[in-house]
Each structure stands twice: as C-alpha cells, then as structure tokens.
Automatic annotation (TrEMBL):
Coiled coil: none annotated. Keywords: Glycosyltransferase, Signal, Transferase. GO terms for molecular function: UDP-glycosyltransferase activity. It comes from Euphydryas editha. PANTHER family: EG:EG0003.4 PROTEIN-RELATED, FI06409P-RELATED. This is UDP-glycosyltransferase. Belongs to the UDP-glycosyltransferase family.
C-alpha cells in the first residue's frame, strides 16, 4: 500500500510543468481573468511564474510573481490619451506590451539564461509583441484573448480566416461596400502599424536577450503566428463569430466559481426589500471622466431617481445629492448582485467580463459602449435581444430610462437573458476543465503541431491577398492605358479617312 502511495505521489508530479503566464494590461478586470487561469494551473499541479501588475500577498511554493506594476503610468490616462488614435486599441496594446517587456523585473527574467519553461501563455491585447518570449525558452506558446474573437485574433492561429468583414443581415449594397472599404483600410493601416511600430519595438526589446543566448534574432512574423492555441474569453451565444478553427477554443466564464459568495447583510436586506427590482450600474470611472460630461452624468443620476426600481451604483468617488433610491458602493461583489433574484438589469460599458457574468446569471444588459470592442459586444446583445445599446450623447439619460422601462414591462427580455444563461451553462465540459485539458495536450504533444493550419507559413502579403490586390490594381491601370491608346489610334484613323474623302 505504501508503495502505491509513493508511486502515485511521483506520478502526480511527473505531469507537473513550469508555465509562464504573462498579462500586460494594468486593469483589475484583466487581473481577475489571469488569476483564474493561474489558479486552474496550480490546481492541476503545475509550477507557475505569473507576470502581472497585481501580485497577491499570499505566497505558494509553486507560484512565483514577476511584478511589472509601475507608479509612473496610469491605466486611466492611457485610455484617454489614445482615444483619438486611428488604431486606438493597437497603439494601446503595443504600449502595454512594451512597458511589460521593458520593466526591470521582466528584463531580469528574460536575460536569465538558466530559466526554463515548458509553456508560455500570454494575453493578446491587439499586439503580437509578447510572442517572442516563447522563442527565448524554446517552448510552445498559447495566446489568450480577454475580448471576443475577431479576424485579428483568429489570424494568429489560422490564416484561412477571411480578411473581409463578417456578413451582416439587413445591410444594403451601398452599406456593404462602405463596410468592406473601411475594413480594407483597416487592414492596410494595421499592416503599416506592425511594420512601422511593432517590428522596431521587437528588435529593440529582444535583440540583447537573443544575443546573450548566442542566437540570431528570429523573424518577427514567424514568431507571432507560431502559437499552438488561442483561448477566447467568450462563448458562441455572445460572439459575432461562432465557427472557430480547431485550435481556437471558447473558455468564457472560466473565472466564475460554482458557488456565488453571499451578499453583506445590509446589501442583501436592501435587495430583498426592492419589490420593483434592482438596477445595477458599473461604469468605469476613467471612461466616465473622458466621455460622460458632468452635466450628462448628473442628468442620468437625476433620471434614475425618478424610477421605481432600486439603483445600486458601483462608484469609487463620492457623489453628492443622491436620489433616495440610488446607493453607491465602492467594491461590491458583482456576481452576487447579478445572481440576486430581484436584479432586472445591468448598466455598464460592455466589456466581455461583465457581459459574461450578466449572461451567466441571466440579467439583461443596457450597454453604454465607448471602446471598439465594447461596441461590438453590445451590438451582438442587441441583435439577439439580450439588451440595449445607448450612445453617449445629450439623450443618454432618457434612452437609459426607456431601456429600463422596456426591460421591466416586457418580460421577453428577461426570458431571453435566462435562455442565454441556460445555453452558457449547458456544456459538454466546464470551461475550467477544457482549459486544463488543452494545456496538457499542448505540453504533451510539444505544441499540438497536428492542429495548426499549414497556411500559417505563408507571408503577410499572401495572407491578406495584398499581392493579388496590387496585381488587380496594376491590371486595371494597364487596361485603362490600353483603352486610351486604342481611342487615340482610332481617332487618328478616322481623321485620315475624313481627309481622304475631302
């Protein structure tokens, strides 16, 4: 019996791998997701090195932190400073990746030639600059996207993804042409962004780390598209792209625990006694200060004061002259509030983390999107009638109140939200188990090469059909010149005939 116990002990640790997890975005919402992944890896017996802005105070024998936090930078200022950029998310993602890689603690890890890892998991936030990390340690690489899937993120693992926008029902031919033209412009700008900004940043940040290992600097594009898997923090019911390549996996709601933590007694009493229902509001302070003018915000607060529902507003700042039905809380348990039977609507900006939690608990969403990904997320909810979209303008408060009335009066919205909850929870296996399964698969098969698309080895010009587009443009130009030559020739011939007749 003792031999069996000893053998089981050693077999358990034989499967243990050393995994590096890198999350460069300095936001708590992203930290919630990374902490969940790390917890699942630790539960599976792996040793984890976690690169994060939010290291926890608790220490475990198989968990090491690389703290990349900085007092010199503020996430709220970053969002505001890039608000007017043409490629806002791409510039922001590049900035976050550069800061993470340039941090002294991260540089120390990267320059350490004795460090080794069996797998690298990095967050993809509109930049491929973290991919070369896996080449330093010569191990498999996995991308993780905290946002919904897009053609950009899918192209990381499958180049057969169409570069044209996803067809949308109800658009006229003019709207479809405009949409396609805008998308083609975006592709060209993105290509320029990678060539002009990401590539020089890669060479600057990684040249020394490869030289210290006596290795030549690998091709950047090859490294970016060399990932084994793409994990996506979403679900088909919440996504505008439901069909995925075999090496892209939806694991949305992996951060949600089976048991929801209980509400504080005073908050539970308030919600229990709210017979007309509860409206929960969570609007990021950084986005409010930039995009919601003080007058509009005050109008929204006053408008919410005239409804019969109780309003619970997550807010870090003190708001004076609050209506009797509006209560502010600094750090509420969002899932516990959404899980309460009297919660009838959730007002937020539309980040995927909040949308997944709302869907998991069957609560309709009233979205006030600001960022590119938030707009896309809310559009999906509106299309499937799980919620409403409210644009930021002078009519914001009245439209929010109209949406609340429609949700409270028309029970079909809550019914569809409950339907989404059932679909989200009804899975062959839990997202936590699926994540753990694919981690083992990647490590044991040394990168799941058998699942990769063979077309990933083609160049960017071929991947986006830029060479064909250029050829078509040249052909069109050539034919226009030929037509002009024929016109001139026949014009001269006709003139000669007229002269002969005379």
């Amino acid at each position: 019996m003792l031999k069996v116990i000893i053998l089981s002990y050693f077999l358990h640790f034989c499967d243990c791998s050393h995994i590096l997890v890198v999350f460069p975005v300095p936001e708590k919402r992203h930290s919630v997701l990374s902490d969940s992944l790390v917890k699942l890896l630790l539960n599976d017996g792996h040793e984890v090195t976690h690169v994060t802005h939010f290291p926890r105070e608790t220490r475990l024998h198989n968990l090491a932190y690389v703290d990349i936090s900085s007092k010199d930078h503020n996430a709220e200022d970053d969002w505001i400073n890039t608000a007017n950029d043409t490629l806002q998310m791409e510039n922001l993602g590049l900035k976050y990746a550069q800061r993470a890689l340039h941090h002294p603690n991260m540089q120390e890890l990267m320059m350490n030639t004795t460090a080794s890892f069996d797998l690298v998991i990095a967050e993809w936030f509109y930049s491929g600059l973290l991919a070369p990390i896996s080449a330093l340690y010569e191990c498999p690489f996995i991308w993780y996207s905290a946002a919904d899937v897009s053609w950009k993120s899918l192209s990381l693992v499958n180049s057969e993804v169409s570069t044209f926008p996803t067809p949308t029902q109800g658009l006229s031919i003019t709207e479809r042409i405009q949409r396609m033209w805008s998308h083609l412009q975006l592709i060209v700008r993105n290509y320029y962004h990678v060539a002009a900004k990401e590539l020089p940043a890669y060479e600057k940040l990684f040249r020394d780390t490869f030289e210290v290992r006596r290795q030549a600097l690998p091709n950047y594009e090859t490294l970016v598209y060399n990932s084994s898997l793409l994990f996506i923090n979403s679900h088909p019911i919440l996504s505008h792209i439901t069909a995925l390549p075999i090496n892209a996996k939806y694991i949305g709601s992996h951060h949600i625990e089976k048991a929801t933590s209980p509400l504080p007694k005073n908050l539970k009493k308030l919600m229990d006694e709210s017979s007309h229902g509860v409206i929960y509001v969570d609007l990021a302070s950084s986005l409010i200060s930039k995009n919601l003018q003080e007058e509009i915000l005050q109008e929204l607060i006053e408008a919410l004061g005239h409804i019969k529902q109780t309003v619970i507003w997550k807010c870090d700042e003190i708001i004076v002259n609050l209506p009797k039905n509006l209560y502010t809380i600094k750090k509420p348990s969002q899932q516990s509030i959404l899980n309460h039977a009297n919660t009838i609507a959730f007002i937020n900006h539309g980040d995927m983390l909040s949308i997944i939690e709302a869907a998991h608990h069957g609560v309709p969403v009233i979205g006030i999107p600001v960022m590119e990904d938030q707009i896309s997320n809310i559009d999906v909810l509106v299309q499937r009638e799980y919620g409403f979209k409210v644009d930021i303008n002078d009519d914001l408060s009245s439209k929010v109140i109209d949406a609340i009335y429609k949700i409270s009066d028309d029970k079909s919205y809550q019914a569809r939200a409950k339907e989404a909850r059932s679909i989200l929870r009804y899975r062959l296996t839990s997202p936590q188990e699926e994540f753990q399964y694919w981690i083992k698969m990647v490590i044991q098969t040394h990168g799941t090469v058998h699942l990769r698309s063979p077309t990933l080895k083609i160049s960017t010009l071929e991947r986006y059909n830029l060479d064909i587009a250029l050829l078509l443009i040249l052909l069109i130009w050539f034919f226009t010149k030929v037509v002009k030559v024929f016109k001139v020739h026949f014009s001269d011939s006709n003139d000669d005939l007229v002269k002969k007749d005379l």
